[in-house]
Each structure stands twice: as C-alpha cells, then as structure tokens.
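If you are new to this repository, start here. Below is one unmodified record pulled from the training split, so you can see the exact layout before writing a loader.
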Amino acid sequence: MTKIKAAITGIGAYVPNYILTNDELSQMVDTSDEWIMTRIGIRERRILKGEDQGTSVMGAEAVKQLLDKTNTKPEDVDLLICATVTPDMPFPATASIICDKTGILNAFSFDINAGCSGFLVALATGCKFVESGEYKKVVIVGADKMSSITDYTNRNTCPLFGDAAGSALLEPSTDENCILDTIIRSDGSGRHNLHQKAGGSNRPPTHETIDAREHYIYQDGQTVFKWAVSKMADVSAEMMERNGLTPENLAWLVPHQANNRIIEATANRMGLSKEKVMINIQKYGNTTAATLPLCLWEWEPRLKKGDNIILAAFGAGFTWGATYLKWAYDTH
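And here is the target side for that same chain:
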C-alpha cells in the first residue's frame, strides 16, 4: 500500500497596515536606523493597532485568504493548528477563536507553543494527521502579535519584533511533490535565556510583576545569537546531507527571520548564494511563528512545482528544526 504524504497546497498571510519605522523607534528609545540595520537588518515592522485586536484577528484574515485562494469551504476543514506565543487569552485556544471567526465548524483545533519554531512544529504535527489518512484538509497557522509583549523602553528587544500571520493548507499528495523530511529538536536549558517571566501559573500577574515589567520579552541576546547560529545552521546542513541535497539542486532556503547574521551563517554553512535565500526581515522584523509562511506567501509567485525547499527555524525553548519539501504546485 502506498504511504500517504502531505503537501502544502496553498499559502495565505496577513500583515497589519501600521508600519513602525526605525526612525519612529529612535524617538522612543536610544537607537537609530544605522544601529538597527547594522546589527539586525530590520528597517520597519508591522504593528496591529486598536482595541480588542488580538492574534486571532490576523490569523483569521490569513485563513480567510487561504480558503479563498484554494477554493476550500470552511466546513471541509478537518483540523486547524495555530502556532503562537501570544494567544488572545490563556484559554480557549486561539485556534478555536480563529475557527469561529472563519466559519470552520467541523474541525478539531488546538494551539502549539514552540516559540519561533512554532510553524515548523505545527506543520510537522499536521503532516502526521494527513499521513494517518484520518484528515484530508489541515490548516496550519503561524501568528503572533509580538507588540503585545514587547517593551518599547528596552532598546535591545523593541527593534526586533513585528506582528503578522501566515497560513498553509495541507492535503494528501498525489505525487512526490510533498513534505519529505523533518528534524525537530529542543533543549530546555535555553528557557533561562529567552522567556516571558510573569503571566503564567508559576508567576501569576500582580501589581508587583507589572511594575517590574515582567510581562515583556526577556532575551539574553548574545547567548541566543550563538545558539541560533549553531543550531539552525547545523540542522539545515544535516537535512541536506541526509537527503542528498546540494547547493545546485536546492531551490530555496526559507529561514526564520530573526537576524540577518543568523540567516547568512545558515546559508553559508549550506553553501548557498544569497539569491536562493528568502529574506524579508527588513520589511517585517521577527514575526515569530509567522516568519516562515510569510516568506512562502511573498515568494509564492516565484515557486515552481518540484522545487526543493528547506525551511529552518530556531526559537524559545530552545527549539530548532528543519523541514525538506518539494513544492507541490505552480502559481498562475
């Protein structure tokens, strides 16, 4: 019996209208466009503004676009997984809220929290449901409103993050153009270097935690950078080696968009020229779980059926991984 494989058959995305530039940031904290561009490579990022505007707002728009592009009826979706570190609320799952906002009534839904590796982990999880034969249409969402946990008085972290959502449709593959291999790993010792200290059951919200600004992102930048360079490059090179891929037959690297230097180190380790690397960090910043689908969405018109593509990510946890796929369709 032929083993069922899962393929990405559509991509959607949503970015807010408001653009926060480096020049505007420099009026909030002691920074500059030159400082940010030299060290990180970000020129601007999108911010979701307004009351009652949570992560699900962006996720729902990305899913609506996806369903429309792929001519998929909401009632035909079997499963929706949302990767996020900024859920609308502790419960219910943001995935459930997105389903409600998009008319997806018959699906199982849940959230995944794997930091910036979230979309990669959700994609791998969704693949297993398709490969089991149980589900035919699985929607994967990577969405984060990072502005909601960003301290705009901290010059080390506030330039890094933006808000966005991306989505992908997984369906059974009819040929070899599908998701072929995934490596996912984690090391919990990294929790000390990248986290949000308060707001969970270990340290519930109090006046003291709010006054101490413990509900924002904490990052030991130097340690995270070293881990990210090492692990994302290592796992991407490992993926190439175990699948017989070369710089010549690999069409694209889709790297997590956290820092230009991390992206460059990964591409160099893989022997890839810059022309084969998707980079949009300068426009959107680090949108966490949304970075990978946001790249696929932007480059979708240039992707060809059968293209060899590697997705790679590193995130809080620490978590990291890579996925190898053959692109399943031509965009017309």
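Two things worth knowing about this chain: Residues 114 and 121 are 7 Å apart (CA to CA). The mean pLDDT is 96.
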